Amino acid sequence: MEKKNPQGFSDRIRAYLNGDYNSLDDIPVKTGGTPFQQQVWLALRTIPLGTVISYGELAAKLGKPTAYRAVGMTNSLNPVAIVLPCHRVIGAKASLTGYAGGLERKRWLLQHEGVDCRFAPIQSSLSMK
């Protein structure tokens, strides 16, 4: 295994950026974290390509509808952000909020995956719901 490309990871990222959106799907990920964090990170992989979900909707899917801020905090700690697609989680009213890589990068990733972001305002990461 080449050290500069462990498990073909660099090749898979390049493939994703070149339009092979499934190239990241089967990368094994061991995140560590609390049981709740692991639950959130696992749920991120179930968000279909080209779609978004709000922090509140994701919290509700996990059976914890009031934990939207905890979902946001967990996303900010995501150890492999493109592989665990936290960029697909948005704020209430379709606002782009809270992405550790920067909101312009989040917008770019969503547009790259086919999400129409023309009407998604960028807001402070304090307004997660």
TrEMBL record:
This is Methylated-DNA--[protein]-cysteine S-methyltransferase. The keyword DNA repair applies. One of its GO terms (molecular function) is methylated-DNA-[protein]-cysteine S-methyltransferase activity. It comes from the Bacteria. The keyword Methyltransferase applies. GO terms for biological process: DNA repair; methylation. It comes from Symplocastrum torsivum CPER-KK1. It catalyses: a 4-O-methyl-thymidine in DNA + L-cysteinyl-[protein] = a thymidine in DNA + S-methyl-L-cysteinyl-[protein]; a 6-O-methyl-2'-deoxyguanosine in DNA + L-cysteinyl-[protein] = S-methyl-L-cysteinyl-[protein] + a 2'-deoxyguanosine in DNA. Residues 35-115 form the Methylated-DNA-[protein]-cysteine S-methyltransferase DNA binding domain. Keywords: Cytoplasm, DNA damage, DNA repair, Methyltransferase, Transferase.
